[in-house]
Amino acid sequence: MFSGTTFNSEGYHRSSPTKPNVSGVFFWRFGVGYRAGSAALAAADVALEVAINTKGSVLGTRTFDMNPFNSNTDVAVFPVTEWFSVEDAKNVKAAIVVAQSTNATMDTQLHARFANDRQALASDWTELEAGWADAAMGNSQRNTSEVLLNSGTSFWGQLGLGVRTSSASSESRATIHVASASTGK
C-alpha cells in the first residue's frame, strides 16, 4: 500500500504520488480513503480518477479441480490461455493459487507450447520454469518469475500449467486458479 497526498479542503485536487514498488506483484489496484477527521459526523463526495501506463496484458485465466496422477513421473498439463501471437508476448508470468489442497505433495510448473498454425498439431509442452514448485497443504499462492518465451520460428503460443504429485503414495486434491500475463515485448 502506498499513500498519496492528504487534502483537508473542499474542491478538486490533483496529486501525482510517486510510483509504488510493484516488483514481484502480479495484480494491484487503486483506491481512495476517506475519514471524518475531528468532526463527529461528516459527509463528502469522494472520487478517484487514475491514469496509468500499462506494459503488459492478461493472456488468460483458468480455474480447475485437480486430482493428479499417483506418480511423480506423470504430468498433467492444463491449457491456461487460448492461442496468442508470440510477437505480442515475448515475456510472460503467472499467478498460481492452490486452494484447499488435501496434502503438501502437489507440484506446479508453468509450461508453453508453440505452433505455426493453430489448426495444426502443436509442439509438445515445454517447461518454462527451472523446477517444480511445491504447493502447501491448505491454501498457497505464488507468482512465477518473468519468463522469456523461446518460440523459435513459431507464430502462435499457448500457456499451460503442469501438475504432478511429488510422492507416488499420496493423493492430492485441490482447486487451482491461474492467471497469466504478458509483461511486454
Task: Please name the defining characteristics of this protein.
185 residues, 6-stranded antiparallel sheet, mainly beta
Please describe what this structure looks like.
With 185 residues, the chain is mostly beta strands. Helices cover 0% and strands 37% of the residues. The protein has no helices and eleven strands. The strands form two sheets. Strands 2, 3, 5, 6, 7 and 10 form a six-stranded antiparallel sheet that branches. It starts with 56 loop residues before the first strand and ends with a strand.
Task: Characterize the overall form.
Answer: flat
Percentage of residues assigned to helices: under 10%
C-alpha termini separation: 28 Å
The low-confidence parts are none
Structural class: mainly beta
Percent strand equals 35-45%
Task: Provide the residue-averaged pLDDT.
Answer: 78
Tally of individual helices: 0
Rg estimate, integer Å: 22 Å
How many strands? 11
Sheet with the most strands, sense and barrel status: 6 strands, antiparallel
Helix and strand sequence = EEEEEEEEEEE
Brief write-up:
The protein is mostly beta strands.
